[in-house]
Amino acid sequence: MPAVDFRAEDFLGRIQAVVGERYVVTDASEIDHFATDHRGRYHGTALAIVRPGSTAEVSGVVKLCAEHGVAVTPQGGNTGLCGGATPLTNRPSILMRLDRLNRVREVSPIDDTITVEAGCVLADIQAAAAGVDRLFPLSLGAEGSCQIGGNISTNAGGIAVLRYGAMRSLVLGLEVVLADGSVFNGLRRLRKDNAGYDLKQLFIGAEGTLGIVTAAALKLSPAIKSRTVAMVQMASVEDALTLFERTRKTFGERISSFEIIGSSYMDFVLKYVANTSMPFEQKADWYVLIEAGEANTGADLAGAMEELLGPALEGGLVSDAIIAGSLAQEEALWRLRHGVTGEFKVAGKTMSHDTSVPVSCQPEFTQAVEKGVLEAYPDANVMMVGHIGDGNIHVVVLFPHERFADAAAFDAAADEIDAIIDDIAIGLGGSITAEHGVGTSYRKRMARTKDPFELALMRRVKAALDPDGLMNPEKIFLPTAH
Amino acid sequence: MPAVDFRAEDFLGRIQAVVGERYVVTDASEIDHFATDHRGRYHGTALAIVRPGSTAEVSGVVKLCAEHGVAVTPQGGNTGLCGGATPLTNRPSILMRLDRLNRVREVSPIDDTITVEAGCVLADIQAAAAGVDRLFPLSLGAEGSCQIGGNISTNAGGIAVLRYGAMRSLVLGLEVVLADGSVFNGLRRLRKDNAGYDLKQLFIGAEGTLGIVTAAALKLSPAIKSRTVAMVQMASVEDALTLFERTRKTFGERISSFEIIGSSYMDFVLKYVANTSMPFEQKADWYVLIEAGEANTGADLAGAMEELLGPALEGGLVSDAIIAGSLAQEEALWRLRHGVTGEFKVAGKTMSHDTSVPVSCQPEFTQAVEKGVLEAYPDANVMMVGHIGDGNIHVVVLFPHERFADAAAFDAAADEIDAIIDDIAIGLGGSITAEHGVGTSYRKRMARTKDPFELALMRRVKAALDPDGLMNPEKIFLPTAH
To answer: Domain B8-100 - what CATH class?
Structure first.
């Protein structure tokens, strides 16, 4: 809680002394811009936008915030899908943008490591890795503008998790500014380190609620020199899993993506997304996109793909298949899969989900979701797309713009559909948020579906690291009465 | 602290009512046996050995311990190298053996998961995975007797970390009994789950100080169908790293091991370890053992290995090379590398280290260690062996049995040599315990070398989860005055 004698102007003056006057922005329209989330669903506010230029400055700002009882919402590229980087508290707060911490501190190809500051844009890190003939494998729709600090704080997923794991698997070390402004310097570049608790794990996926990630030492992988991309069509999710099993036998860990697209999602993409066309003569219920790659230039991966898909075609497991013969064809196939948030807004009102279940439960999950949602809303367009190799299906339920009388009616329907999908996921041992995190959007649903003991344990961790609740307040957990 | 009216017999009677009389062992010689660590360096004691048969029984026992103020030291196969599973506290305590929790609860090849109880022996889990044509990749010297709960609690490493990561990377979900006896049920089998803090990470590598792992959902990998094993000899650690770089280009993620053996370690093995013989005509300063494997039966990995090593031989990077032509030859090469703890005891007095540094720093590390130790102790036999692909070198310093007048003189020398090696490691951004953990042995060295702020943060986590300090007391941290 703020001190009784809190005066914003005194406080901001002290902040200016730390970061410089020009990096404390109090212009209302600029605050409004950055205090609105990527999807435009949340509109927050803050005393100021503060843009520190170094870890020491982050520390200095957070120390002042702790002293004055001011909350801090850290923000990277503001591309998150759950309102996790939007300042939505009624307490005095600042919005801390990390974009000026954008140095690549070190790249070491021998160590397969890169050490970067939190504000580095993901695509720039990918490029820095490629510059030393390495791969930084995290890849997702927003890679051109999202920042690595946000990727770490949300344990970002994307299209190569199957092979390389999510963000957590790529972090070797972290530097973090804690709630009292002290700096945890865990920026080690070690493959193995069992010297006590692995504290960095606490901050990965914590969405800035336990501290502010300022820098990270990340793992690189061998650059991919040979690649093959294919798309197939098939009748069922079961068949997709059978093909997944065969694909693992053929490619081992070299499968980097195994993605599924349902027919209504494919129809949507073909209708709304520019530069897309149907690669097959016939339609099918499901499409699978497969990518495999390896470090060795000599590998005949396309040949291996043919050996995989030939028998699958002959045996009727897949009804048609296309192996990309050029980079342009690879890109054309990937365009059918990639994120289409903007197009959803044009097409209607959507409710998006990010569910995971054990890989083998996906046939049951997809059937139960379609049945459950259509029983409640027969006019819903239930689209599915996702990372079937990871057990992570995104269900997108689309309605015409005019379907609901007002926002309240839409929200009520969304709550109902959320509950249908969440209950199916939880019943199968799944998660209601596989890769997007909790932020603001998923708090109520998490509170409803999570074991209360597990939630209480999370709050205990939060209290231990941020006793005054100043770090990204009111995210992940619903506010409790004080 | 125990209640003032604590009576061991009343307490143990209540424990018997939970687990059954026969599973509460108070026989002094049996307690003595299990309260002595694997290396025979620590001799502890306990009120009793308690062997619960289920998670509910673990919970019941821990609840009673919390009520009576009795500490709990959990123990798996008792194969740890740091005295982490030895009850060494002066407080009333029990030694909890998890060996009766030894069920494989579920194996799912489609999901690539296996769900096991904490007392399952590692080799049995490997066998269960092989039974469904999968690989559970954790592999280490003690695999025939160590238990998975211990592997998880120590974040075990071993010989395949390069490819598959350490234990932490293999854990999808955990079930843990906390200090008050409550059960954290995080036994999910999901590849992706960002629903709040990833609490299981807290317990991996915490050595039982935050709770007792009772079960785990683990990741499986494709079974290895083609394999190649080679050994080469070379003049320097730099050359080994050059070969490592080329090996990564050739095999990508298919390298499962890249291990180094120094000449004096090789001499030691050839002299003391049964069934070993020198595979080369000449001696060399360093030997590297390489293993690559893949899921595809058709792969010509031996051919790829020849293409890798041929030019290396011609160019003089390696002075000799042997590619195993049979399983027997593969095993013979691996025998030169595997753990030799027993033989050390026969040969003399040893001081063993488990250091990691960034991969590129290993030439500097090995040279500085040899120089530093030999300057202080010119008669020392400084042997080196380790996982060079992970930056993890084990330095073993050997002296003749009669070298030190008494245990105190040995301990003083060990402290001095520890400090020499630790300072070099820390100076290079390394860790003084890469894969063995802290337990009892490394506490003093960790307290000396670790950032006090980081240590304090670890204690804060400990206090949040185990406020009364009943979980494996006096491990990881040196006791503080109360």
So the answer is: alpha beta
